[in-house]
Design brief:
about 325 residues; mainly alpha; Fumarate Reductase Cytochrome B subunit; four-stranded antiparallel β-sheet; two-stranded antiparallel ribbon; 6 strands; about 65% helix; disordered C terminus
């Protein structure tokens, strides 16, 4: 055997020796520190999951990666977040256009100087507790959905991380008073929010917005307010139910159920936020005298006559109207 042949054999043997470990690493090993995510995903068939080992009685906790989760994440980024953005921005733009075209809805007869009790202290407390908690829930939810695109570039990673953490805490804890207030609101006002024929007339006449000086009769709540009431009760219940499933995922059978709950939570909340934006507009800058109902609890008689004439008649029959005394104090009407 020549020296050249021996050297060639030695090189070939060394090459085979070094290549053997490489060939042995080709099968995907989830526990290997050098394995790449894409290698694991490529090795999976549709519907399968990369699982590890656990010592707790929860099989779902062993899941390390599931390719179908990519579809859920893609839906959130491309559909769910965009729906929220379109709903909020679209509603704000629509309200702005409406205000520019119609302006503020005035009390046509002017303030009478006599008031009537619209909501008592308990009703207003429940309303404001629910309103404040909902606003906090909405803002923290919006931050989770689109904050990384809007807020993060302005605040930076550290401040945004702290803000998001505080928002998560607020979301978890303020959900409870919101849910309680939804139940109380239903029990408190459901008898005034049963649909009737007057609501059809109110809707047909556009709530008095179509023809100046013409306002359809309404009782305690008109058709628009009834829509908001049932939107809060039904939408709030669905958001609460899906939110509880997200907070306590052990009640769900699979990750797919959790994903469906999250999507439902986001979409329903988006619709509620758009509706509440309209409610806030009408109750503040959109209608003169409306905010008084939820601040002092008293509304001007002419406001009541314009927007809730049938309810005013019922209250007048009870002698509920009040007038302003010489010093500005409120005294019962004679």
């Amino acid at each position: 055997m020549t020296l050249r042949f021996k050297l060639a054999a030695l090189v070939l043997g060394a090459t085979l020796g070094f290549s053997a470990p490489v060939m042995a690493q080709q099968p995907v090993n989830p526990t290997a520190s050098s394995v790449q995510e894409q290698q694991l995903l490529d090795a999976l068939k549709p519907g399968e999951t990369i699982s590890g080992r656990i010592s707790i009685p929860d099989d779902n906790a062993a899941d390390l990666q599931k390719p179908s989760n990519k579809d859920w994440m893609g839906f959130n980024l491309k559909v769910s977040d965009r729906v929220m953005g379109v709903a909020l921005v679209g509603t704000l733009l629509a309200l702005l256009v409406f205000f520019v075209v119609k302006g503020r809805l005035k009390i046509e007869a002017g303030r009478a100087g006599r008031t009537i009790t619209r909501f008592n202290v308990f009703e207003r407390t429940v309303h404001w507790t629910m309103a404040i908690s909902f606003i906090a829930l909405a803002l923290s939810g919006i931050n989770v959905a689109v904050g990384r695109y809007i807020v993060l570039p302005w605040l930076g990673y550290e401040a945004f991380g702290s803000l998001t953490y505080l928002g998560k805490l607020a979301h978890h804890y303020l959900a409870w008073p919101f849910m309680v207030c939804v139940v109380i609101t239903f029990l408190m006002w459901v008898r005034h929010n049963i649909p009737n024929k007057l609501d059809l007339r109110w809707l047909k006449e556009g709530g008095g917005l179509l023809v100046k000086g013409k306002h359809p009769p309404a009782k305690k709540f008109n058709a628009g307010q009834k829509i908001v009431f049932w939107g809060v009760v039904v939408g709030g219940s669905l958001v609460a139910a899906s939110g509880l499933l997200l907070m306590f995922p052990y009640f769900l059978d699979s990750a797919t159920d959790w994903q469906l709950a999250q999507i439902a939570h986001a979409l329903i909340a988006s619709g509620m936020m758009a509706m509440i934006l309209g409610h806030i507009y009408i109750g503040t800058v959109g209608t003169e005298g409306a905010l008084d109902a939820m601040t002092t609890g008293q509304v001007d008689v002419n406001w009541a006559e314009q927007h809730h004439s049938l309810w005013l008649e019922e209250e007048l029959a009870k002698g509920a109207v009040q007038r302003r005394g010489p010093g500005g104090e409120v005294t019962p009407a004679e």
